[in-house]
Amino acid sequence: MDQELFEIIRKAKQGEKEAFGQLMVRFKGTVFRQAYAILNDPAEAEDIAQEAFLKVYYTLGKLGNEYAFASWLSRIVVHLCYDRIKKSKKEKEAFNRWRDEGRRNDSCRQGAIEHKQLQLNIAEAMQELSPEQRVVVTLRDVQGFTYDEIADIVQVPVGTVKSRIHTARKALKNLLSG
């Protein structure tokens, strides 16, 4: 992160609303994508993004180190997503709506249809993973976090992160090849 961002975070910690607004603008896409990758539902992801920024607004003063902001924010998003998954039985319904929407796009070119089908197959396979596996695979393979960063975000040892990723990738390979 750059020095300008650290200054914005520092000002937001001191209660400057304009600085907090700048943080929201900078991170809203990242937060939404992370939540969407875990929940696979744009409406749920939008709700999580709003909840995350609300939580950040009220707890930013507790952040000890501005340099840890991005991983702290990711941890908030992951935990909110976990809570949403635990509370809601709608996970499967959300996937089915997304899959059905993809099937309605029959007028697309064949290449686009094949690409969409691959996306659906991957999304369907991802839904077969445990939430813990889905989160670490998303953080590593979609968002590019390091093992150490993921361990910090989900608050488990690095070895556990590596094990979950290995197990998840193996399961995905089996699901997609069979």
From TrEMBL:
<feature type="domain" description="RNA polymerase sigma-70 region 2">
    <location>
        <begin position="25"/>
        <end position="90"/>
    </location>
</feature>
<dbReference type="GO" id="GO:0003677">
    <property type="term" value="F:DNA binding"/>
</dbReference>
<dbReference type="InterPro" id="IPR014284">
    <property type="entry name" value="RNA_pol_sigma-70_dom"/>
</dbReference>
<keyword id="KW-0804">Transcription</keyword>
<dbReference type="InterPro" id="IPR013249">
    <property type="entry name" value="RNA_pol_sigma70_r4_t2"/>
</dbReference>
<keyword id="KW-0238">DNA-binding</keyword>
<protein>
    <recommendedName>
        <fullName>RNA polymerase sigma factor</fullName>
    </recommendedName>
</protein>
<keyword id="KW-0805">Transcription regulation</keyword>
<keyword id="KW-0731">Sigma factor</keyword>
<dbReference type="GO" id="GO:0016987">
    <property type="term" value="F:sigma factor activity"/>
</dbReference>
<dbReference type="InterPro" id="IPR013325">
    <property type="entry name" value="RNA_pol_sigma_r2"/>
</dbReference>
<dbReference type="InterPro" id="IPR039425">
    <property type="entry name" value="RNA_pol_sigma-70-like"/>
</dbReference>
<dbReference type="InterPro" id="IPR007627">
    <property type="entry name" value="RNA_pol_sigma70_r2"/>
</dbReference>
<dbReference type="GO" id="GO:0006950">
    <property type="term" value="P:response to stress"/>
</dbReference>
<dbReference type="InterPro" id="IPR036388">
    <property type="entry name" value="WH-like_DNA-bd_sf"/>
</dbReference>
<dbReference type="Pfam" id="PF04542">
    <property type="entry name" value="Sigma70_r2"/>
</dbReference>
<dbReference type="InterPro" id="IPR013324">
    <property type="entry name" value="RNA_pol_sigma_r3/r4-like"/>
</dbReference>
<dbReference type="GO" id="GO:0006352">
    <property type="term" value="P:DNA-templated transcription initiation"/>
</dbReference>
<dbReference type="InterPro" id="IPR000838">
    <property type="entry name" value="RNA_pol_sigma70_ECF_CS"/>
</dbReference>
<feature type="domain" description="RNA polymerase sigma factor 70 region 4 type 2">
    <location>
        <begin position="121"/>
        <end position="172"/>
    </location>
</feature>
<comment type="similarity">
    <text>Belongs to the sigma-70 factor family. ECF subfamily.</text>
</comment>
<dbReference type="Pfam" id="PF08281">
    <property type="entry name" value="Sigma70_r4_2"/>
</dbReference>
